[in-house]
Every structure is written in C-alpha cells, then in structure tokens.
Amino acid sequence: MNEIRTPYLIVGFSVAGLWGARTIWQKDPEASIVAVSDEDGFYSRPLITYFLGGKSQSIEHRLKVPEGAPFTFLSGDRVEHLDTQNRMAFLRSGKKVLFDRALIATGGVPVVPPIQGLTNEGVFTFTGRRDLMAMQEFLRRTNPKRVLILGGGFIGLKTCEAFMHLGLEITLVELASRLLPLMLDEEASRYLEDALRKTGVQVVLKETIQGLEGNGEKLTRATLQSGAHLPVDCAVVAVGVRPNVAWLSDSGITVRRGVVVDAFQETSQTGIFAAGDVAETRNLLTGEWNVVAIWPEAVRQGKVAGMNMTGERIPYPGSLPLNALDLGGLALVSAGIVNPPEGAPFEVLVRREKHAYMKVVLAEERIVGLIMLGRIEKSGLYIRLLRERIPVTEFKERLLDPRFGLVNLPREYRKSWVEGVGMEV
Amino acid sequence: MKKIRIHEEYCIGCHLCEITCVVKHSPSGKLIKTFRDTNRPAPRVRVEEEGYVSFALQCRHCDDAPCVENCLTGAMYRDEETGVVLCDEDRCVGCWMCIMSCPFGVAERNAEHTHIGSKCDGCVKKGEVPPCVENCPNEALTYE
Amino acid sequence: MAKSLLFPEFKIERDAKRCIACQVCVRQCANAVHSYEEDDDTLWSEEERCVGCQRCVTLCPTGALEVRRREVGFRENANWEPAFLHRLYKQAETGGIVLASMGCDRPYTIYWDHLLLNASQVTNPSIDPLREPIEIRTFLGRKEASLDVDWENLSLKTKLAPQLELSLPVLFSAMSYGSISYNAFRSIVEAAQEIGTLCNSGEGGLHPDFYSFGEHIIVQVASGRFGVTPEYLGVAKAIEIKIGQGAKPGIGGHLPGEKVSPEISRTRRIPVGSDAISPAPHHDIYSIEDLERLVFAIKEATGYRKPVSVKIAAVHNVAAIASGCVRAGADIVAIDGIRGGTGAAPQVIRDNVGIPIELALAQVDERLRREGIRHRASIVVAGGIRSSSDVIKAIALGADAVYVGTAALLALGCHLCQKCYTGRCNWGIATQDPLLTKRLNPRIGKRRLVNLMRAWALEMKEILGGMGINAIESLRGNREQLRAVGLREEEARLLGVKMAGEGW
Predict the structure, then answer these.
(1) Average pLDDT of A272-297?
(2) How many Cβ atoms are within 10 Å of A118's Cβ, its own excluded?
(3) Is the model's pLDDT at A423 over the cut of 70?
(4) ∠B98-B99-B103 over CA atoms, to 5°?
(5) Domains within chain B, CATH numbers bracketed
(6) Who is most buried in A139, C95, C297, C371, counting CB within 10 A?
(7) Distance (Å, rounded) from C-alpha A36 to C-alpha A6?
(8) The CATH fold of domain A112-239
(9) Are chains A and B touching, using the cut-off of 8 Å on CB pairs and a minimum of 3 such pairs?
(10) What are the chain B neighbours of C23 within 8 Å (beta carbons)?
C-alpha cells in the first residue's frame, strides 16, 4: 500500500511522538494516527546508558500505544521530503502519506566534531539502540580496557556513569574549563570533578581530541589538542545533540537551531506541529527561543502539541531546562538559570553542608534557578515554585533549610495544592 | 478512587502515622518487634512541622502524575484499577527524574541512595482504611 | 536559692520492654516532661513538671507508660493530709494565693449518692422505653398559674412567656471562650445544635463565628459585661445575668492578659493583652430592686421575646435569694453548687465556700412552692452532675433541668488534672495556645458530646420507664420517688426525702 491517507501523521516516535499520540487519543479515541520512525518501536533512549552499565535489564519502557488504538506504525522508515503545501510526506521506502495534521518529533542527532580517525573501529556516538548494540558487540568481542569519553556535558557524564559500572579505565575530556558548564556553577563543577576523580576517572579539562589513531585493526590512541597522547581502545563522542532537521531543509518550515514553534507548538506552517528534542520553543524564564532536549520537555510539548492538533488552543507556558544526574555517589539536580550575571535583578542564596551544596537563584523574589548537589530531595517542590512564579519573600530564610517543605509555604498555597491533586500542563 | 485528605488544623504532630506506616510495611506487622529491628522500613508518610503547624504528607497519587510521565523506565506507574501511583523498585534505576518532578517533594531516595524508596503505596485493599488514617488520634487524616 | 520542699505529685513508670522510643510522649507533653536522648536512644522523664493529665499514657502506641500518684513518705496524719502540706509548702515558698481549677474535690457528702430511686412493681406497671414513647422534652421559662382558653375557637387567650425547648433536661454549662479554647467551644455549640439543647456563652462574649448557632446559645451578662452588644443579645435564644458561680461565690473572675489574644480581644471587646477582670458584684446591682431593673432592661431591649435567666451560687441563704430573683422577673433561676467547676479560682474559696447543690435545690424548690411562685420560673441546677441518675434525682428534688460543665469537658477529653489555670491544657480544652488547641478536633468533640447526651437520654428513659412514668413532668419535684440512705434525719428533712425503708 504505497499511499496512505490519515488525519494525523507523527514523524518520529519517541517520547514526544508517543505522548502526542496518546493525547490525541485521549480527546478522540477513534482518531487514526500514522507514525513513521526509523526505529523498530518505542523504547526509553536514556536507558541505554543504564543498560550498558548493568543497572537496568532492558531498555523497554512500560508506556505503550493503547490496545486497539487506530495506529499504523511505519517502522524502520523515515520521511525524506515533507510537502507542506500539499500536505504530503514522502518516505524513504517509497510510501507516500497524505495527512491533515502532522507532528514533527524526530528528536536529536549527535553532534560530531571534525576529528581525524573517526572511522576507526571502536569509536562510537551513543544516543540510540543501534549505538548500544554496536557498543555491546564491540565490548564483548574486543574487551577494551581504556575508554575515552569526549564531552563533559550531560550525555558525556551519563555515558561515563555507564562505563564506571563496567570497570574500565575512563578518561573524560571536556573543552570547557569545567564539567557541566551549563548545568552547574563553578563551585558545583569542582565538587563533581572531585567526586569523579575519587572514583578513578581521569578528568581532563580545557581540552579536546585532535585525532584518533588505530593500528589498522583497532583503535590504539588519541591525540589531544595539546599534543599529548592517550592510549585508548574505545572512544565515545558525546559532545552533545542537535535537532534532527536536515530532512526539513526543503519543506519551507522555519528552522533555526531546531524547528521553530509558537506558543501552541505549531510551526510556521499551519497544521504542522513540532515537539521534543527537535523543537525550538520559548524559554519559560528568559523568553528567548531555545532547544531544551530533555524527557520532561518532550512529554509536555508532546501533550500540548497533541491537544492543539485536535483543535484545542492550549498555550505552552515555556520550556525549562532541568536535569538530574547521579555520578560517583553524588546526586545532582539542576534547573533554570544557574549562572546568573552579577547584580540586580538576581539574588543568589547558597548553602554548604558537609556532603551537600545548594544554590537558589532569585530574580524579583521568585526562583529562577536551582542547583542541588548531594541532597536532592524536595527539588521538585522548588521547581514547582519556579514554574508557578511564587514569590518567596515570606519564607526566604527557610528556603535553603534541609527541612524546607510544603509546611513553610503560606497556607493558601498549601491548602489549594493539597485539596486538589494533580498538575495541569 | 478514595484519597487521603490532610487536615492540618488537627494534626497534633505526634508522628503516629509514621510509626503505623512502618509497622504496616514491616515483615512481622507487629509494633514492638518492628521497632527493635534497626533495619525496619522507612515510613512512607512524613510529618512536616513548622511552629505550631504540622501535617502528614504522603504521595498524592496525582491524576496526571508528573513522576509517572517523567520516569525513564516506567518504574513509576499508575495501577489503573486502584488509581494508586506505585514504584516498581526492581525497575527503578535511580535516575531521580521523579524527585525532580514531584511538585510536593514527596519522592525520596532509599537509604543506600540506589533507587527510590518509601513512597506511599496506598497499602490497603478495597474497602479497607489505610492504617495512617485509622490510627491518627485526632482524625487529621481522613479517607474519602 | 533555697530548695523547694515540694515533691513531684506524680510518678512516671516506663516499661523498657515496651518502649520503642517513638517519642510520641515527648511531642505530646505540654509541660515538656519527657525528653529524648539522641546519643543513647533513651527517653527520660522530668517528674516534677508532670500534672497527671494522662495524655502520654493515652497516646503511647505500646502502652509503655503509667502515670500514678506519687506516694509521699510522710508519717500518717489524719489532720495534716498530704494535700494540705503541699499547699502550705507552696505558700511558704511563694507568698501567694494557691490557685485551683475545676470543681471542689474535698470529700464532703455527695447527696446524690445517698438518694435512691423507685421502680414500679405489680401495680402501676413499668413502661418499656423500647416500646412506648417516654417524653423527656423540657420547656424552660415562666409558666402561667392558669390558662384562659377560648373554647369556641379552641385557641389560647393567655399570652405565654417565651420558652426554651430542650430535647432532654440537660444543658451545657457556662464556659467562656477564653477559659476554654475555640475548638472546645465549637464542639459544645455544634453538639447543642445537634442534640436539641442549649449551651451557655459564659462571661466572655460570643465569637462572631457562632452567631449562626444563636438559637442554641444562652448568652451571659456578667459583672464585667464582656462582649455585651446589641448583636450579642440579638442572636441569642436567652440571656442570663450571672450574679455568681458555685466554684467561687462572692468573688469575681480574672483572665490574665497573656491569654487575651486578638481573637479573645475581639470577642470580649477589650484590648489585646489587657487583663479581663470581672468584679465581684455587678457595680449597678446592690439590691434586689436593681436586679429587677436589669432583668426588665434586658427584656425591653429584646422585646420580651427571650427568657431572662439569673444565675446564682448556692450559699447559705440561697432559698431567699432565689425567691427574690423570681420576684425580680427572672424566667429561669440557675443555681450553681459548691462542686461547680472553674478555669481558675483560689483553692480556699473553691473548696470552702458555698453549699452542695442537692440541699440548695431542695430548699429553693420548697420555698418557692410555699410562696406560691414556683411556676413563675424554671429552676436549673449545676455543680457536679456526673450521670443520668444524678439528673433524674435532681428533677425529682424539684429541678426543671440541669447544667453540665465538668461532664461536658470530660467528654471532650479532660482528665481532671486541675491545672487549667496554667493555660497549658494538654487536651486542647482550657488553653489558647495554638499548638495545644489543635488537639481538640471539633468533629470528634461534637461526636463525643452528642454520644454522651444520647446515652444519658436513653438511661433516663430506662429509669423513668422503670418507675412507671412516661413523661418527665410527672417526676418534677416528685420527692416520693426518692429515698435517703446513710443520711441523718436532719439532712433527709432538708432534702424533703423519706428514709429508705419508709413506704408511702
């Protein structure tokens, strides 16, 4: 069947795509949805590092397409050209999909810097199932001892966490002067670096790889910018991801870093929406357009897109960068603006304990940024205060107290939050 | 689905709810025996106190639970029949997305900080009343 | 500093096998008696501060605690009982008046316990309350000597004075908001509404939150005139002029400034933090004629739509005083005996001034009948009514209804530790401390009061049915249903009751 007609087309079927579909079906359980994905099915991408490290037994997620839903899944395929005028998607397999509304949820692709020797065996990016399978096969076959991870950002560190569980010697190379430069401040970065070093990971900052060399059979060493050589038998390039938008270059849809969407997750083409790692949305705090490639955003954006695709007009309040990590025995949560410029309107509150560091950034008496290192309980409460723009003046002195909780908030908030449960998007 | 309602005006800060919760989730189910055991489970309800305000807070089993939505593995899930949000600790990998997502700050790590521990699991069968509600001496928790 | 000679009054025993160091006792003691030692995970109790309220004992989940009277090791002395020694030492140390709360606890004769009730047998058979209705509904107010009926139209020509209708002959006694907590007051007011009786605001005014319950509230006009506004008189069902109370006849009242919170200030209409002093006499009542003037001033102000009650303490001349009150226009005379409770009073007054209500009641009833004015006012008695049998006996002696104060507080959780005057009532009743008042959940309090009254109503019906009486009116003043046991002839005569063993 080469031509398919459908009211709803979803391109890419990871978190944003699946939640878009679920939301559409919540409103209209009879709505026919066609999804195109170059994967075989839905799975949890972030789990690949946990699976590699042995902390998880599978990368499957409990979430599924509801039983009996009117769903056509075109797996192992991809959209090569999107004709937005005529509302047609042309697939690599030769199929054609005619749609009324579409959701672009193709996620991100790894950023690969121009390094020599990337084609050597033993060099990987690590963002999906195929990477995982290739890596696992390589590990089984060659039993490497020394791995180099390029990238001290979120993905690099997650990958590092996986290898720590495998017992390999790890060298982590980061271009910036500190780890997680966007998620942490200077002080927190130092604590994290110390914790990593204590576990035996070699952390090399202000460096990058110039080239990778092999002996014809496998990878043998890496050369750093400084000229130093490192013997390695496995390398992972994990400097970051960027939105998967190359295939949209001739679609007419406005693309900057990602697919630009408005407050309703709609692209520059009416009826075509985007959500998740591929989308460029308005930042909740700064008001600027940015790509926030994290799971909670993909869920929220997918839901909003799904609702608006069925004719609702629900605006999205804005994207909030946040993330959680557990590395070298140190748990950490980061959200919002954590490296504010000096002076007004920002106020910075810091609390240091023996094994914990906490920082709250305020602007005009409202929380705009949070770092919690070591002790992360209640972080969700602070993030809620951030999202709902609750002024903190009344309880500022208690804000960083380890026992801060719902009880410290003014009664009206407590009562309304606890009387009715659940959250609205 | 019946939910636990919190009446902070009548909470006397005695912490008996925490004690009863521990006993309910202990292997023996007996009060004194459980408390002799230094490895007893952590309570899944916590009393928050400030001045003369206090109340017992446990998982609210939200309808659109953000912890369920943001869980990387599906360890946090909602039992469709009972409406209770549960954590399958075997499936949990300790990514802490739920802690970051819970708007009430209820999700906690377990003692070893390896995965989520001690989240209210709506411990009773249909028709029964949770022991924290039953044993609150001042009816500061009601089940409705 | 010289060492205090006072021993702790109570002994705390903690069973180590049962104690799980859960610290509920630590958290629940308003006197900070129990404490927890973190470093060795043990509990310690500071017995000196214990007042014997039994809260920790009640809440301990394993029943590990026992709080008992401490046996002091003085040599036996029938004259110098330990209580006297304790108070004397206290006065030697402080030079002050020893305060006490609740009612007189001295072992004076309790006449209720010397009165026995009748039951029917053979002739005049008893009635089964499960099968036949038994009327315990009571109307308080002035009754007419005779009724003028228009027989043609079957209507009443005589204008009836306003009445209070009670579903049973029990009302809740005057306990002011200030002496008891908001939650306690709410429990009582809501219970009164559900049961179908009334409660009394006491001399502390009425909090606006309770205006909607006005149909079930008697408001008091006491010597301090706290909270007396047109609205106050307007929402109430009846107004009571408080001349005295059984626990402290002849002296006034005093609510310390520390207990006058913004809410109390608003209710009593006095500045926050200022002492609330009720002078001993009303400074505008120095004769019975003055009382009559006030009674009628109130009746005028309320359009003669509400009964006016006068509350007096039971003192030696109570019968004459009561007669005067009736002649002064009171629709109800409330008499409070020596066992009546209070939030705070000097112990010497509480325990030594006034007379038992049983004797006062019998004499008042007899005198009013003799003077032919018994119908002009209802008599309500108070002061240590403990059970439904006490209520029945009171009615048989001549009362129309009874007020219960201590009994109501016991239903709410009071354990009679008699330390109300400290303001640290562990049960959340006689305190304004928000940490402590939380402990009384009005939903639970109301439920317990309603239960108590329901139980008493059922018992009263059983007793009446057993006597072969199906309406409480037939028992009122019916001394023949009572017999005295273990009393001297003089006492029996004063009560107007025959000795047990005597027939009709």
Answers:
(1) 95
(2) 16
(3) no
(4) 90
(5) 1-58+123-144 (3.30.70.20), 62-119 (3.30.70.20)
(6) A139
(7) 12
(8) FAD/NAD(P)-binding domain (3.50.50)
(9) yes
(10) 15
Predicted pLDDT at C109: 96
Give the mean model confidence (pLDDT) for residues B24-32.
94
Q: Which pLDDT belongs to residue A421?
A: 44
- For domain A3-109+242-309, the question of CATH label 3.50.50.60 is answered with yes
Specify the pLDDT at position B127.
85
Residue A301 and residue A16 in contact, taking contact as beta carbons nearer than 8 Å:
yes
Rounded CA-CA distance A386/A336 in Å is 8
Taking 50 as the pLDDT cut, the residues of chain C under it are none
pTM: 0.88
> Is the minimum CB–CB distance between A390 and chain B shorter than 8 Å?
no
Cα–Cα dist C203/A181, whole Å: 69
Give the CATH H-level superfamily of domain A329-419. FAD/NAD-linked reductase, C-terminal dimerisation domain (3.30.390.30)
SS3 for A331? strand
Q: What was the pLDDT predicted at B93?
A: 92
* DSSP output for B39-98: TPPPPSSEEEEETTEEEEE-----TT-HHHHH-SSS-EEE-TTT--EEE-TTT-----HH
- CA–CA gap between residue C56 and residue C449 (Å, rounded): 23
Whether A4 shows a pLDDT value over 90: the answer reads yes
ipTM of the complex: 0.94
Domain layout of chain A by residue ranges = 3-109+242-309, 112-239, 329-419
Distance (Å) of CA B2 to CA A72, B84, B122, C343:
38, 10, 10, 43
CA distance A249 to chain B (A): 31
On whether any CB of chain B is under 8 Å from the CB of C61, the answer is yes
The single residue listed with the structure tokens 């998967």 is A244
The residues, any chain, with a CB within 8 Å of residue A85's CB and separated by 6 or more, are A252
Asked whether the predicted pLDDT for residue A422 surpasses 50, the reply is: no
Instruction: At A150, list the tokens.
Output: 């390029």
Residue A80 contacts residue A93 (beta carbons within 8 Å):
no
Confidence check: pLDDT of A424 > 50: no
| 3-state secondary structure (DSSP) of residue A272 | strand
Q: Is the pLDDT of residue A425 over 50?
A: no
Domain A3-109+242-309 and domain A112-239 have a common topology: yes
Structural domain boundaries in chain C: 10-99, 138-499
Distance CA A304, CA A323 (A): 21
Residue B63: pLDDT band (50, 70, 90) is confident
pLDDT band at A106 (very low <50, low <70, confident <90, very high): very high
Domain C138-499: which CATH class? Answer: alpha beta
In the sheet with A169-173, reading across from the earlier edge strand, the strands are A123-124, A234-237, A146-150, A169-173, A202-204
For B63, the closest chain A residue by CA position comes to: A422
Search chain C and give the residue with CA nearest B38. Answer: C20
pLDDT of residue A78 exceeding 90, the answer is: yes
Confidence of residue A116 (pLDDT cuts 50, 70, 90): confident
DSSP line for A284-314: TTT--EE---SHHHHHHHHHHHHHHHTT---
Contacts of residue C2, Cβ cutoff 8 Å, sequence gap at least 6: none
Pick the CATH number of C10-99 from 3.20.20.140, 2.60.40.10, 3.30.70.20, 3.40.190.10: 3.30.70.20
Query: Residue A420: is its pLDDT beyond 70?
Result: no
With an 8 Å Cβ cutoff, is C444 touching chain B? yes
Task: For residues A93-122, give the mean pLDDT.
Answer: 92
Copy the structure tokens of residue A139. 């590990």
Which chains does chain C touch, 3 or more C-beta pairs < 8 A?
Answer: B
B113 near B89, Cβ under 8 Å? no
Interchain CB contact of C441 with B (< 8 Å): yes
